[in-house]
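User: Please predict the structure of the protein below. I'd like the answer in structure-token form so I can feed it into my own downstream comparison script.

Assistant: Understood. Taking the following sequence of 387 residues as input:
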Amino acid sequence: MQVAFLDLKRTLSGSNRSEIDSAIRQVLDSGQFVGGEFVELFEAEFGRYCGAPFAAATGNGLDSLYLAARALGIGRGDEVIVPAHTFAASWIGISRTGATLVPVDVREDTGCINEDLIQEAITERTKAVLVVHLYGHIPDMRRIQETTTRFGIAVIEDAAQAHGAMRNGIMAGAWGDASAFSFYPTKNLGALGDAGMVVTKHTDVARKVRRLRDYGRSDRMTFLDEGINSRLDSIQANILRVGLRNLDARNIRRKEIAALYDEAIGSIGDPCVRRLLRQDEDSVWHQYVVRCHDRASFMRHMNASGIGVDIHYPVPPFRQKAFEHLSHRATLWPVAERISESVVSLPIGDYLSDKEVDCVAAALCSYVPSKASFQASSTRSRGNMSA
């Protein structure tokens, strides 16, 4: 059996397709295609779901991050602490404000920002810490907030991969001063195109995001800021309302799949392949990521077994040409380097059948690490591959 890494068409099957068709017809019948009632309903419903009092829809996730930072007053002359391992868009959303990026290394066991390293990166110019809930896992936000509160700096959540994730009973989006979500089609809650949201506990932040997303105007002909055009389409908003109703059930399915993969990985020669994320109640498993001592060998085996795999992310942001001015400091972020060289993502779409999940698990169980892999595992510490 062939198991594709991702098949978005399958998310539109059955009753879900019927609900989406009905949602689209509602918007077409309304004649209101940008903003309006359906966007406002989605804002209210998603904010309530996250446990935050305010939500402002945007055109995409990158704009959400940029607008969240702008609304917090971040700009030139400011510094923002960012994780060294993440999708490059996390950095771009902040750098677009003109602020200086201050990368901090990440944890071996999650790939998320290392909470222990934040304080030493803070200077008198630090305005905020960007916390990325990578792969659907929320870092230790209480520890992060203890640090940021002590120094009087803001917390921005990049929650683009964490729809529905919780830690200590608090949802992603309800921790920070402003939180950015993406609803790109591949996300746990995805639109049929681009869409985003800023969630916040602050009235002034929500008000400013709403103004900045609409050219910076306070009414039709009064422009208070130099804003952008990042308004959400009504069709996408109504489609996302359908998805939000099904989100918890779909996340539960991802957790079930992750638990089965955990069992299968336990049968592989230790420690040549280890899961990156901990199996706990916090993660919504946007990706199921393993780390391999011999990534090429593991990927060849999975592909030969009919299993599609991917890499999130093979090149850390500081190695990207867009941020080459930071590349000379790469030795400061060794964990991010190691993770980027070893990660592999497995299929974890909530639409996967039990038979398909069993096929992925069987491929994992049948992987026999090469002799080189075992040699590598003996020369590298177990801590570098632990879950």
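That's the full token string. The chain is about 40% helix and 15% strand.
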